[in-house]
Amino acid sequence: MHADLSRLTHRPERHYSAVVAQQGRVQLDADANEQTAIQLFQARTLAADLIGEHGGPRGATGFKIALRGGGRDLDDLVIGGGRYYVDGILCEATRPRPGVPVPAHGAADDDGKDESDGDGAGGPAAPLATWTYWDQPDGFRDPERPGDRLPSAFPYLAYLKVWERVVTAAEDPALREVALGSALPDTAARTKVVWQVLPLPAAELGIEDHTPPIKDIRKAFADWARKQTAPGSGLAARSERPDHADDEPCLVAPDARYRGPENQLYRVEVHDGGSAKDATFKWSRENGSVTFPVDELDGTWVALATLGGDDKLDLNVGDRVEFVDTAYSSRGEAAPLLRVEELDLPGRRVRLSDEPAPGVGRRPELHPFLRRWDHHEGGRRSVKRGAGAERLRHGALPVEEGEWLPLEDGVEVYFAPRGTYRTGDYWLIPARTATGRVEWPADAARRPLLQPPSGLEVHFAPLAWVAGEQAEPDLRRAFGPLAADIPAADDAELAAEAEARAQEQAGHAADGSPEAGYDASGAAGDPAQPAPSRSQTTAAAEAAVDEGGAG
User: Fold this and answer.
1) Strand boundaries in 168-318, DSSP class E
2) Across 257-400, where does the E strand assignment appear?
3) Which of 345, 253, 351, 251 is nearest to 299 (CA)?
4) What are phi and psi of 509, to 5 degrees?
């Protein structure tokens, strides 16, 4: 969640049901965000409890998968429209219909029909009704990359991957209120549900049969998904009074362990994933929220929409930046971090140490921007901003497990041994000047506790078993509505009628009437047969007629 936040306070284990505002108090972003988090948690927990791990509404179940053979082209998957819930998160696969523009002057004939309405050979093609594997909105698959293509060998599983990420005005300019002026910062950010339909070869599920039972596919996929979502790394944070604290005694309290001059929300994020020997991380004192929209890219020179709001949120020579756009964020891959080598302040341009990675930042419609990170090449020995140089790997810091690693101003982090790291996993560390410490869970002896990553939280659901040109076995689930027709009588009336019939039958059994197992002549009837449907009044009237006839 790369947003300008003070901290995140939602703790599901504390069972808070609402945030209660009090009069005359300061309003904080953390309180409003916690209210949103509480409501989302409650709604999605309820949906998951009722629906299960995944499912769609019957009649509108989305993400039906159909294989479209490529012939000379690459294979493709058609993704059916509709809705689907994964762990309570709503995913919508319906493709929006394009709008109808006003025709240009003179473009319509006398009947009001556009001369190029698509019926003729030269008319525009009809809008696509469904998404496909290659054009899904947040997939950004590249046919030129062999790893993005569908498996050439059958069978494989088509599955749904779901997570959330934050979108700011740097990525979606429509979020910015232009009436506030270009010099003012943006306002609120947005959280976006990202879904992708991806293939998974049968070998990765441990399935050798070409057409296994559906229950075996579900079980194998559940085991695979459990491994993907299990936390593989842990981190702890603390604040320790650095050795240079006496050099600047007037900036903060003399006994403060956190020596920064301002409150900060530190973000430690995994850059390159893998084991500790391969993994790297980056950190930001502003939660990675310092961004600079890109207007133009020319080799290593980048023209920016702004160079920052002040001297704490700007760019300087030596800063490490990440070149980001919508596709880069959705793919979740790590490109090398670049160094700012030169500033052209009048032209709002910066020169980077290298060109961005291929496929990143070249398409203006994907809204490229630079994200600033605050570590420098002196990060390992530095507890003070701007210290000397030290080795980096792809512009990020190598993970070193089992020891305390200084960030800056007394903030230190500790990676648990034998961890497995995933690109994008992150931890948040609030640092406060009022206490001179960082806020981090600790035991009774004040020892910092290892915590799993705060995110990313990824969710999975199986969709279809693709075994070739034959029909794909559907692995989706569906649920029906809870509402039903109202009966002619309510439950209380039906219960009263049933009780009255039971009492009537019990009374007949007590007085030996025909309904008790005898026929009208007094002979014993078949107790297994149902009693005649006669009331006591009718039986008494028949008996009186018989007596009158006999007299």
Assistant:
1) 190-201, 235-239, 264-270, 274-275, 280-284, 291-298, 301-304
2) 264-270, 274-275, 280-284, 291-298, 301-304, 320-324, 338-344, 349-352, 369-373, 397-398
3) 351
4) -65, -30
* 412, 266 Cβ separation under 8 angstroms: no
Interstrand relation of 65-68 and 301-304 (parallel, antiparallel or unpaired): unpaired
Residue tagged 């035991």 (tokens): 443
183-196 tens-digit pLDDT: 677 899 999 999 99
Report the amino acid identity of residue 248: E
Nearest to 361 by CA among 292, 294, 272: 294
Pairing of strands 404-408, 291-298: unpaired
Give me the half-sphere count of Cα atoms (radius 13 Å) on the Cβ side of residue 362.
7
Helices (H), 305-448: 326-331
Pull the structure tokens for residue 286.
């502003």
**CA 394, CA 337: separation in Å to the nearest integer?**
6
Report the predicted TM-score, pTM, of the whole model to 2 decimal places. Answer: 0.82
Is residue 69 within 8 Å of residue 75, measured between CB atoms? yes
Q: pLDDT, tens digit, for every residue of 315-373? A: 999 999 999 999 999 999 999 999 999 999 999 999 999 999 988 989 999 999 999 99
